[in-house]
Each structure stands twice: as structure tokens, then as C-alpha cells.
Amino acid sequence: MHDNFQESDFKSLINFLKEKPILTQNKKVKKFEEEWSKWLGTKYSVFVNSGSSANFLTIATLATLNKTDKRNEIIVPSLTWISDIVSVIKNGFKPIFVDINYKNLSMNIDQVKSKINKKTFAIFLTHAQGFNGLNDELLKIIKKNKIFLLEDVCESHGATFKNKKLGNFGIISNFSFYYAHHMSTIEGGMVCTNNKKIYETVRMLRAHGMLREMKNEYLEKKLIKKYDYLSPQFIFLNPGYNMRSNEISAVLGLSQLKRLDKNNLKRKQNFKIFLEHLNNKIFYAKYDLRGNCNYAFPLILKNPSFKLRDKLENLMFKFGIEFRRGNAGGGNQIRQPYLEDFVKKIDLKKFPVVEHVHDFGYYIGNYPSLKKNNIIKICEILNSLDAEEIS
Ligand SMILES: Cc1ncc(COP(=O)(O)O)c(C=O)c1O
Questions:
Q1: Which of the two ends of the chain, N or C, has the fewest CB atoms closer than 10 A to its terminal CB?
Q2: Closest ligand 1 atom to the C-alpha of 329?
Q3: Does the CB atom of residue 55 touch ligand 1 within 6 A?
Q4: Is the minimum distance from the CB of 328 to ligand 1 under 6 angstroms?
């Protein structure tokens, strides 16, 4: 990412600060939540201090409202961010991993189907790097099996499925406003839902588990009476956290939201320029572009050659093309040390796509201020890889 914060953002912030306002969570946070809900098309949004917190509160909320020992499995992708998996584990669920597919870098639907059983509680899908990860078949399976769909849209703001924004299909969806993503609030995230009970519980867990944070007058009256030996201001109903954000981040969010659609259009155009100019004999190019909106470009070598990979990395270092190996999240989560105790019996041969991406996949920047001629230059550099190594 480059220059995610612009003059107009700083001006909004300075104007706001001139009023000597309250800086902890207040009116601007509420306004940002309302504006985000309007943009996305959901009833409720809860602004939190990171996308990881959004992930954590999502699973914590479902655990608070629905947990049964019988249904303790959550199906997760092997290519995602660590917080998706940690939120599952730390809230007492078992992560069930599936491979991804090359078209959208999201879950392999056949593997999802094969992993569903009586213990399946939810599918926590990541829309990876701006691609839509949903299809009709998956939505049908989820409905038929009465499983919760949770959408992690942290990398895919504005991407759509059948012309509807991602984040509207699951019972809860998550967004991140970290610097590298489609828009930024310094740090920040959003939990979105149409379900009032979920909304109230996320609000409560975001702020220490406090009853008054639910903003449910009826319940508040009832519970204040029930717990009449407690101060009504300090009734901690559930074990909660402090995952609130603040007014400064909300002001930046409101300012950035104004140009999100325009920026997204630019990212889509940029993505096409990358695809038009990269050599598809060297790099994978058959992505499903229906509804995509990519904040980065996934650069995946076709040939699983470590020699070629070294050459590619040297080339990118030499010309200052910033990259991350393994695509977003560092590749196959299953290989990460924090999961050693959870995945001892997993056969990595059943994860061929994420394994390839782990070793031979990268992502490079695709930001709005990236100019066409720069993209073409980058593609020329990347295409200069030794031809004899390619096939
Ligand atoms: C898919 C996904 N989920 C969650 C997160 C966590 O977001 P944050 O960095 O705001 O904590 C990220 C971060 O990059 C991500 O890519």
C-alpha cells in the first residue's frame, strides 16, 4: 500500500480536534458505524480496534449465544489470517481445515462438503484478497445443514457475489481497516450483522461484557431488578474484553469511506492491467473476476521450481517490488508453529493448492495511486524471468 492517508483525511482530523472533543468511543464511532451499515447494506455494525478483534468477537458472540458441546467444529480455510484460526481455538471450538482453489483462493467446496457432520457449528469463510469465495452450491449446503456462515471480508471490501456486497450473506461478517487494506482507520475493524441479538452481544463483549453497552432497555430494566445488589452501571453479564476503538479512528474512517468506491474502481482497473501484461505461461492468471475487488495482486508461479522462485525473489528485491511470500497470511496456516498441537495428524498431501501457494505464491501491491505505466513496467520486470525455467 502507498499513501493510504491523504490531505483530506488529515484536514477532517484537524477540524475535528479543533473542537476539543472527547476522543474515546463516542458520537463519531456511532456515525461511522451507521455510515458503514448504509454502505454495506446491513442493519448493524460495531466498530472495533482491529480486524482480528472483529474475528474474535464474532466467534465469542456465537459461543456466548449458541455453544453446545455437541457442535464444536468450525470449518476454516488453510489460507487465511492467523486471527481467524485463533478466534476459533480460543473460544473453545475445533478448527477443521480445508484446501483452497486457484480461481478465488478461497475454500475448496468439495472438501467443505466432505467435512460437514453433526458436530459442524459454522463455516468461517475468508474472501481472500478481494475475490468472492461464495457460490450457489456452498450457500445451498449451508442452508440444508443449518450451519452458520461467517464471512471474513477483511481483504475484500466492496467485492460482490451476484451484485450484492460480500458481508451480506453470513449471519456475521468482519472487516479490517489496517493500513494495507482497501481503506484504513490506522487500526480498526467492523463486525456486521442483521441480527439484533448478535448486535447487542457484540456491543456488550466489545466493552467488558457490560449490560449497559447492549442498549436494550427492556433487558436492562429486567436485569437491573434481578441483580439489585449490583451498581446498575457496572453489571458484567458475560466475560468480555475491551476491543473498542476511538473517535480519531472513526473520523478517519468517515473520511476514507467517502472515496472507497472510487478507489475500488481503480483497483479493479489496475488488476486487469496486471492480467493483460503478465506472461500467463509463467504466472497463474485464470482468476474468477466476477465481483472481485483486489487490494493486492496474487502472483503465483505455475512451475513449482525453487530455483525459479529464488530468481523471482532476487528480481523483485533488485527492482524494489515489495512482496510477501505465501500470499496473505503467510501461506498454509497448518504449517505454522502455533498450530503444532492441533494438526499433528493432518496429511498435507490433501492440501495441494495451498501447499503450492505457500511455496510459489506471492502478493504484490495493487493500490489506487499505482499508475498504468508502472504496472506495465512491473509486469515487464516479472516477465523477464528465464524462459527455459518456465515449463
Ligand atoms: C483475512 C483477514 N482476517 C483478519 C485480519 C486481521 O485484521 P487486522 O490486521 O486489522 O487485525 C486480516 C489482516 O490482514 C486478514 O487478512
A1: C
A2: 16
A3: yes
A4: yes
Residue 200, exposed/middle/buried by CB under 10 A (0-12, 13-18, 19+)? Answer: buried
The C-alpha cell 516479472 sits at 382
For residue 164, what pLDDT is reported?
A: 98
pLDDT of residue 389: 55
**Separation of CA 368 from chain center:** 19
- DSSP state letters, 244-282: B-BHHHHHHHHHHHHHHHHHHHHHHHHHHHHHHHS-TTT
Mutate to test the pocket of ligand 1, among 47, 52, 53, 78 (most ligand atoms within 8 A of CB): 52
Identify which of 137, 104, 63 has the alpha carbon closest to the alpha carbon of residue 292: 104
Spatial distance between the Cα atoms of 183 and 135, rounded to a whole number of angstroms: 26
- Distance from C-alpha of 294 to C-alpha of 2, rounded to nearest angstrom: 15
* pLDDT, greater one: 342 or 167: 167
83 CB near ligand 1 (under 6 Å): yes
For helices 306-318 and 352-360, angle between their N-to-C axes, nearest 10 degrees: 40
Asked if residue 343 has pLDDT above 90, the reply is no
Burial of 387 (0-12, 13-18, 19+ CB in 10 A): exposed
